[in-house]
Write a structure and sequence with these properties.
Shape: elongated
Strand content: over 45%
Strand order of the largest sheet: 1-2-3
Helix content: 10-25%
Pfam families: DUF4295 (PF14128)
Number of strands: 3
Order of helices and strands: EEEH
Largest sheet: 3 strands, antiparallel
InterPro entries: DUF4295
């Protein structure tokens, strides 16, 4: 993982976080971005998974 980014979003009464992770493809070697919107508690788990 070469880059990670986390932004906080607020929608109404819920607090959400958008996490962006750069993942290297094992086949081609190219990097792709994986984005997810989740609770702030789950961000650490998302960024640590490969």
């Amino acid at each position: 993982m070469a880059k990670k980014s986390v932004a906080s979003l607020q929608t109404g009464s819920k607090r959400l976080t958008k996490a962006i992770k750069m993942v290297k493809s094992p086949k081609s070697g190219a990097y792709t971005f994986v984005e997810a919107i989740m609770d702030p508690d789950n961000v650490k788990d998302f960024l640590s998974k490969k």
